[in-house]
Amino acid sequence: MKAVTWQGKRDVRVEDVPDPRIEQPTDAVIRVTSTNICGSDLHLYEVLSAFMEPGDILGHEAMGVVEEVGSEVTNIKPGDRVVIPFQMSCGHCFMCDERLYSQCETTQVKEYGSGAALFGYSKLYGEVPGGQAEFLRVPQAQFTPIKVPDGLPDERFVYLSDVLPTAWQAVEYAGVPKGGTVAVLGLGPIGDMSSRIAMHHGARVIGVDMVPERIGRAAARGVETLDLNEHGDNLGDVVREMTGGRGPDSVIDAVGMEAHGSGVPKMAQTLTGLLPDKIAEPLMQRVGVDRLTALYTAIDMVRRGGTISLSGVYGGATDPLPMLTMFDKQLQLRMGQANVKRWVDDILPLLLNADSDPLGVDDFATHRIPLDEAPQAYETFQKKQDGMVKVVMHP
Ligand SMILES: NC(=O)c1ccc[n+]([C@@H]2O[C@H](COP(=O)([O-])OP(=O)(O)OC[C@H]3O[C@@H](n4cnc5c(N)ncnc54)[C@H](O)[C@@H]3O)[C@@H](O)[C@H]2O)c1
Ligand SMILES: [Zn+2]
Ligand SMILES: [Zn+2]
């Protein structure tokens, strides 16, 4: 089959690889019909290179049709239409019972001290072959897949793999009080969708980014937008002015470790990227740092007693945080990989009516391409060119 493979820093290629097959009685194999590129893939593209091996198949946002199931998989059958969450979860461990599916104890990657295994996401998360491919082996298929009905196009459902539950959790964790205000930092797919969901819940949303098309897209849906290029130095003051001098009740950081505007950590990330993997890997696990501009902005901006919800991924081991301010302001901080299946029952009703599309999933993608064009798309997406916000690939 054809698959998008990681070959090195900023080097992604479509290659012929062996078809996946059932390896465990709890596996399924699906034929992929739609599969997206995610901001998280960009971390692998460059900063997290040390944890990748040439040939690793990328991708964690796939949906398709079940081809084959193992003997212990009874919840789905060949021909069923399914969306595959970006994490694998068993559905019967302590963490799954708590509905903390991204912490599943059956698939946790203990070697690296990580949570549940993720598709296409480096050694840190189990080095499981990903979904940017014609076929995908799904471990823990007795629980992991989300069954969706026939009749509506893929783009109605494909974002259940990541963007929708991640944004939903970001908003839940932000705990915006009734009639309150949330600031969303970063208007990529995650920030954009978080804004839509927060507005759907009735919140006032202030969105921040620096890419004109992304700002425009959010503004068109009613977000009060701010351009980082214009307000970068006094963003906190500007937002306080918009919120009665106090700051927003909650801030969602949908930027993460590669924030624009972080000089020294950017240099550190670039330098570790130049080291051989054998040296870089332990170094990143012990002294790695993130680019923390967005998080610092959130800490400064949020009102006293407010909540910061991190959906942007961080990976530093020794990040310096302004504990004085955080303690004094009595902040609450919530974060983590989305527990995908926890939110599906909340989200699905918003997707099932052909005549209404409250979250705007039908035209959420800006680019639809065949798998072969993945290498170019990764480059364009990283550079945020060509108005690219979300790419859906059709293998
Ligand atoms: N928690 C989860 O389960 C989960 C799931 C999916 C993605 N993510 C993470 O969410 C983050 C966003 O994902 P995405 O797909 O939207 O990525 P993206 O890279 O497309 O979006 C990030 C946006 O942030 C903007 N930005 C950069 N620096 C900024 C700053 N200092 N202030 C404000 N905006 C800034 C960029 O211009 C860009 O538009 C990534 O870190 C990704 O890894 C987390
Ligand atoms: Zn993703
Ligand atoms: Zn589990």
Report on this model:
- The protein is an alpha/beta fold.
- Helix content is 28%, strand content 20%.
- It has helices spanning 39-45, 94-97, 163-174, 189-200, 212-220, 228-231, 235-242, 263-274, 277-287, 293-301, 323-328, 340-347, 374-383, and strands at 2-8, 11-16, 28-37, 56-57, 62-69, 81-84, 135-138, 146-147, 181-185, 204-209, 224-227, 250-253, 307-310, 332-335, 367-370, 391-394.
- Helix 3 (163-174) packs across helix 4.
- The longest helix has 12 residues, at 163-174.
- The structure holds nicotinamide-adenine-dinucleotide and zinc ion (2 copies).
- Nicotinamide-adenine-dinucleotide binds at residues 38-40, 42-43, 162, 166, 185-191, 208-211, 214, 228, 254-256, 259-261, 293-294, 311-313, 337-338, 384.
Offer a quick outline of the entry.
The chain is built from 13 helices and 16 strands. The protein has 395 residues and is α/β, with parallel strands linked by helices.
| Pattern of helices and strands | EEEHEEEHEEHEHEHEHHEHHHEHEHEHE
SSE class: alpha/beta
Q: Mind describing the biggest β-sheet?
A: 7 strands, mixed
Radius of gyration, whole Å = 20 Å
Please report which band the strand proportion falls in: under 5%, 5-15%, 15-25%, 25-35%, 35-45% or over 45%. Answer: 15-25%
Note poorly predicted spans.
none
Bound molecules: nicotinamide-adenine-dinucleotide, zinc ion
How many E strands? 16
Distance between the termini: 10 Å
Indicate the percent of residues in helices: 25-40%
User: What's the rounded overall pLDDT mean?
Assistant: 93
Question: What's the oligomerization state?
Answer: single chain
The backbone outline, from C-alpha atoms, is: globular
Helical region count? 13
